[in-house]
Amino acid sequence: MEGYYKKRYSRQMLFQGIGDGGQERLASSRAVIIGCGALGTVIANGLARAGIGQLVLIDRDVVEWSNLPRQMLFEERDIGLPKAVAAEMHLRAVNSGIEITGLARDFNAKTAESLVAGADIVLDGTDNFAARFLINDICLKLGIPWIYGAVLGATGCSLTIQPDYPPCLRCLIPEPPEAGTFLSCHQAGVINPAPGLIGAVEVAEALKVLSGVQTDQRLLEVDLWQRNYRLVNVAGAARFDCPACNGQYDYLHTETGNHSPLYAGEASVQLYNTAKAERVDLDELAGRLAGQGKVCNNGYVLSLRQENRSVYFFTDGRVIVRGTDDPAQARLLLKELRR
Ligand SMILES: [Zn+2]
After folding, report:
1. What is the pTM assigned to this prediction?
2. Where are the domains of the chain?
């Protein structure tokens, strides 16, 4: 082990739970973080500093002003950049000794396997059940441990899920709750200590799994406002008829979720032009959109601002429309813009 390396990670290697051997295992590990928002930025920051050898950050959205109170890696100058790109940029300055890949991509049934394949662990930085059920399916299919984490308001929860050691997420929650039956952070709000704490818990669990330490099957539930901290043993919640535990991965076969609003409770829609496999030429697009609003092209994403809405065009063919939660209306708008 090189001298600089020993110096850099000395405090972690002194920590009995990790040691020299554990640090080497961290350095040869690949972690995939799905979602680079409030949870994802805390997780990515923790894992990059801890020296995880390969980090992959996946996020489909761009940085906005309303993200700054809790999405710890971002600064005001990042507004309008894809979150995955901005996060990669900041983390490269934090740790040049590891491989960091930020992907401004949508995690869906079509892309899940290629994005996650080869990971030693997957971390949940998402904000919706659809994505989590997809993570559960792909991780069970590929035999990858994953850390579930969720926050709302001042509350949060987390559970480490090991393939072959049920319960999995679907054992605990057989079907995702229907949209509209639960609140999202866009409706109930969120304060930064909640993702700060749950993100740190996810990092701790990842360090344990990656350095070869046994984890347990206790679900953590916290309410930072009421100061309630609870661990619930869910080992007995494994279901023998759980489809995912029996190799039936329903969410890998659902249609990509591009026709639904982007976030529950927020007027955003993501459209995916799957027919268009080639990279979108943003410069050419900027020329075509000139005169239809305020156009800004930062090389990663092209934004068009109009009076009541904003449209973001990504190079992978995705389009996010803000200002409506009606996919039909968003598609109509795109048709008009492309005319
Ligand atoms: Zn299960």
Report:
1. 0.93
2. 3-252, 268-338
What's the gap in Å between 289 CA and the centre of ligand 1?
48
Q: Give the distance (Å) from ligand 1 centre to CA of residue 168.
A: 4
Task: Supply the DSSP symbol for 235.
Answer: G
Residue type, 169: L
**Residue position matching structure tokens 């640090």:** 23
Cβ pair 219, 236 in contact under 8 A: no
Give the DSSP per-residue string, 60-82: -SB--GGGTTT-TT--GGGTTSB
CB atoms within 10 A of CB 299: 10
Q: Are 104 and 300 in contact (CB under 8 A)?
A: yes
Q: How far is the CA of 170 from the centre of ligand 1 (A)?
A: 5
Residue 258: predicted pLDDT: 47
Q: Which CATH class is domain 268-338?
A: alpha beta
* Architecture of the domain delimited by 3-252: 3-Layer(aba) Sandwich (3.40)
pLDDT digits (tens, 9 = 90+) for 6-44: 999 999 999 999 999 999 999 999 999 999 999 999 999
167 CA to middle of ligand 1, Å?
5
